[in-house]
Amino acid sequence: MTAPLWTIRTLLGWSAPWLAQRGVESPRLDSELLLAEVLHLRRIDLFLDPHRPLSAAELAAFKAVIKRRAAREPVAFILGRREFWGMEFRVGPDTLIPRPETELLVEAALARFPDRSSPLTILEMCVGSGAVVCALLKEFPNATAVGTDLSAGALVLARANVEKHGFAERIALLEGDLDAPLAPEASFDLMVVNPPYVTTQELDGEVAPEVREWEPRLALDGGADGLRVVERVPPCAVRRLRPGGLLLMEIGSQQGEAAGELLARGGLVNVEILIDFNKLDRVVAGNVPPLPQMD
Ligand code: GLN
């Protein structure tokens, strides 16, 4: 007797419920993404050819990745990549996986600097995989940037992403805490930062296992109130932004008011809380005061 032949359709019919039983939130989508990867197909090809049989080697490869997903490893880590701002980025366990909400940082920069050709100078602290700064360098083709991160592993990925997108000539990546690696006189038009802002309690409790067990704690843990790093950012903005320069910082969904106060107390003006597509607080914006006008 020959063994039953697995096809794309029958395999997805097995893997999706199996992942669902293990608590995976989008079991069908994840199965499709992983199967497409194993078969070197696009997701749409799975529908176009549902009766395609799998070889023993393909079956073994698919089972291996499905097991990883069942252990709640994020799909982006299994694939080693994630899309952000329509660009593909390498990701790995040393950085956060770029989130769709984080695109609000890029949108906010575009709204506040309408001249795309301006030679902006950008500082991104906690640069991680480099997704945000690469999106900004794409949108502002004459901009240059510095990215800093405490994690040497994150900077390896950031460097790979910067090179992949052809921005190596326009960015310097420096290891260290917030603005500490910069020369004393370095100053910028725009500062962006997605600091760790999850409270330690949330991280040990309600956060999904994909985040808690697989993403780097250094990039997430904002201490007891989530603001341990957030509160250190306004002084950096005052030190590092030119008069009138803009700070954009990602924050947690409950942190709008507290973060807004931190910016205002730190001396920033035009402080605003920006809401993401889920209608949650997501970004706090503020300017360093401009120089007084001469008449
Ligand atoms: N948005 C992320 C999460 O909810 C946290 C990102 C961060 O701390 N910067 O898991």
Structural features, described:
- By secondary structure, this protein is of the alpha/beta class.
- The chain folds into 2 domains: 8-71, Helicase, Ruva Protein, domain 3; 86-287, Rossmann fold, CATH 3.40.50.150.
- It is built from 12 helices and 9 strands.
- The longest helix has 15 residues, at 56-70.
- The protein starts with 7 loop residues before the first helix and ends in an 8-residue tail after the last strand.
- The model has no long low-confidence stretch (mean pLDDT 96).
- Glutamine binds next to loops.
Structure summary:
This protein has 295 residues and is α/β, with parallel strands linked by helices.
Write the layout of secondary structure elements.
Elements: H1 8-21, H2 27-38, H3 43-48, H4 56-70, H5 75-79, E1 81-84, E2 87-90, H6 103-112, E3 121-125, H7 131-139, E4 144-149, H8 152-164, E5 171-175, E6 188-193, H9 200-204, H10 209-214, H11 233-240, E7 241-250, H12 256-265, E8 269-275, E9 281-287
Parallel strand pairs: 3-4, 3-6, 4-5, 6-7
Antiparallel strand pairs: 1-2, 7-9, 8-9
Helix pairs in contact: 1-2, 2-4, 6-7
The chain binds glutamine.
Residues 96, 99, 194, 196-198, 211, 220, 250 line the site of glutamine.
